[in-house]
């Protein structure tokens, strides 16, 4: 498995919004600017077939219209979106807002499937979704991708909660929210990452959704099993 960190920052930084690409055709979240960011990294978003959305904040799904429009004009029009049930309507509304006139043609042209099940298979991966705690935003999900060799998790936006502890306990790599220096009821902070990384030393934590001061502070801490990525970092597992 190859995981490319497309975005490692929070909305209010010069880093891209938190998002990842797995191998060559799977995205975890499709935030504001995602299509442009993929192009800048040499990836044409038309090759993407699977989009997993952790939750419906704009910094996690607002590039859906650009992606749908591009797919409608590409040879391969297959799109699988994995999300909560309210996502179908939200994506449709967003497409109509972004491109009112072509929206109908785009909807007709693309081969769009929604998958709401708690677990599913993508390529060689068994994927399971886990409810996490992102304050008032409900539902918010994390995902674990399992192969015979390894488990790789993505927490999405969340404060520390039971399912985050579970994910850290079983994963070899966990891409996780660490927006702030101090945790809040919506996001994890460095205190949560210190706790998780010492409790689960076998897991490597790749922090994301970072504010700039959090990034600077984390660099000073030099925690053994914590990786602070820049946009574009690729990890082969
Ligand atoms: Zn959020
Ligand atoms: Zn967010």
Please characterize this protein's 3D structure.
This protein has helices at 34-40, 58-61, 64-72, 87-98, 103-109, 162-170, 190-199, 212-221, and strands at 2-7, 19-22, 26-28, 50-52, 78-82, 111-115, 119-122, 125-134, 137-146, 151-154, 173-177, 204-208, 226-227, 234-236. It is of the alpha/beta class and 237 residues long. The protein has one domain (2-236): Metallo-beta-lactamase, Chain A, CATH 3.60.15. The strands form two sheets. It has a seven-stranded mixed beta sheet with strand order 6-5-4-3-2-1-14, covered by helices on one side. Strands 7-8-9-10-11-12-13 form a seven-stranded mixed beta sheet, covered by helices on one side. Helix 3 (64-72) crosses helix 4 and helix 3 crosses helix 5. It is globular, with a radius of gyration of 17 Å. Bound molecules: zinc ion (2 copies).
What structural keywords apply?
8 helices; Metallo-beta-lactamase, Chain A; globular; 7-stranded mixed β-sheet; binds zinc ion; alpha/beta
Note the topology.
Elements: E1 2-7, E2 19-22, E3 26-28, H1 34-40, E4 50-52, H2 58-61, H3 64-72, E5 78-82, H4 87-98, H5 103-109, E6 111-115, E7 119-122, E8 125-134, E9 137-146, E10 151-154, H6 162-170, E11 173-177, H7 190-199, E12 204-208, H8 212-221, E13 226-227, E14 234-236
Parallel strand pairs: 3-4, 4-5, 5-6, 10-11, 11-12, 12-13
Antiparallel strand pairs: 1-2, 1-14, 2-3, 7-8, 8-9, 9-10
Bound molecules: zinc ion (2 copies).
């Amino acid at each position: 498995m190859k995981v490319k960190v497309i975005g490692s920052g929070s909305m209010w930084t010069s880093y891209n919004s938190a998002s990842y690409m797995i191998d060559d055709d799977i995205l975890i979240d499709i935030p504001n600017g995602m299509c442009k960011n993929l192009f800048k990294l040499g990836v044409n978003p038309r090759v993407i077939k699977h989009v997993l959305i952790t939750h419906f904040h704009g910094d996690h799904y607002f590039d859906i219209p650009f992606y749908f429009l591009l797919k409608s004009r590409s040879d391969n029009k297959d799109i699988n979106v994995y999300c909560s049930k309210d996502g179908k309507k939200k994506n449709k509304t967003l497409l109509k807002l972004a491109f009112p006139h072509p929206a109908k043609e785009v909807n007709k042209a693309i081969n769009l499937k929604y998958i709401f099940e708690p677990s599913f298979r993508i390529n060689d991966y068994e994927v399971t979704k886990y409810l996490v705690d992102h304050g008032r935003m409900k539902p918010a999900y994390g995902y674990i991708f399992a192969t015979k060799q390894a488990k790789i998790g993505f927490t999405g936006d969340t404060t520390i909660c039971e399912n985050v502890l579970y994910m850290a306990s079983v994963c070899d790599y966990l891409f996780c929210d660490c927006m702030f220096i101090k945790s809040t009821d919506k996001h994890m902070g460095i205190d949560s990452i210190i706790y998780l990384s010492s409790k689960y030393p076998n897991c490597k934590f790749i922090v994301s959704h970072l504010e700039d001061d959090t990034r600077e502070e984390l660099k000073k801490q030099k925690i053994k099993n914590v990786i602070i990525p820049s946009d574009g970092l690729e990890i082969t597992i």
